[in-house]
Amino acid sequence: MKPQDIIAGKSSLWIFGYGSLVWKPDFKYKRSKVGYIEGYKRRFWHGDNFHRGNDELPGRVVTLIEDDDASTWGVAFEVTGSQVEESLKYLNVRETVCGGYVTKMVDFFPEGEGQSPVQALVYIATCDNPLYLGPASPEEIGAQIAMCRGKTGHNLEYLLRLAEFMRSSCPHVEDLHLFSIEAAALTMVSYLLAAQ
């Protein structure tokens, strides 16, 4: 599904971020809300040879894996008017051309009492993508993240900022996958620093 098909005739759109978008949307938006989507779990199973890695050492970034019993917390951004087209042009390059993500519409549930769900656009890297790396142990993923750097910065920054977002904005949510990889990456960094 192409973003252009989704927005035909719409004057506003919600975009759900669950990775770097939670701290660095880099597009103009009307408002944002913390909340979650159901039926997906966040995993560091996607390779990145541009933003957080390179062809020799691809970094690891998050994608969503279907899981009926799971939910993923993040931020949804409402874009309106000219922001709709501008944000989609930007995200098409950031997520689709450079990242290999596809788009879907999902129900987003804002945090808080009496909040109604809204339809939101989400970018997902699928397993048929050439950059898809798949599962590995937290230690393997953490070590890979500790070693990689791309045009946007160090892969470790991506991991630590996502973990910080979860702790500060969603303190009631225990993301074991994220936090176990964070611990493994920080252990690897301490070994690297001690070896110098």
Automatic annotation (TrEMBL):
Keyword list, A-Z: Apoptosis, Cytoplasm, Golgi apparatus, Lyase, Neurogenesis, Notch signaling pathway, Unfolded protein response
Enzyme class: lyase
Gene3D superfamilies, alphabetized: Gamma-glutamyl cyclotransferase-like (3.10.490.10)
Major site of localization recorded for this protein: cytoplasm
This protein's encoding gene: chac1
SUPFAM superfamilies the record matches: Gamma-glutamyl cyclotransferase-like
Function description: Catalyzes the cleavage of glutathione into 5-oxo-L-proline and a Cys-Gly dipeptide. Acts specifically on glutathione, but not on other gamma-glutamyl peptides. Glutathione depletion is an important factor for apoptosis initiation and execution. Acts as a pro-apoptotic component of the unfolded protein response pathway by mediating the pro-apoptotic effects of the ATF4-ATF3-DDIT3/CHOP cascade.
Subcellular location: Cytoplasm, Cytosol; Golgi apparatus, trans-Golgi network
Pfam family, one: ChaC
InterPro entries named in the record: ChaC (IPR006840), GGCT-like (IPR013024), GGCT-like_sf (IPR036568)
Protein name: Gamma-glutamylcyclotransferase
GO cellular component: cytosol; Golgi apparatus
UniProt catalytic activity: glutathione = L-cysteinylglycine + 5-oxo-L-proline
BP terms from Gene Ontology: apoptotic process; glutathione catabolic process; nervous system development; Notch signaling pathway; response to unfolded protein
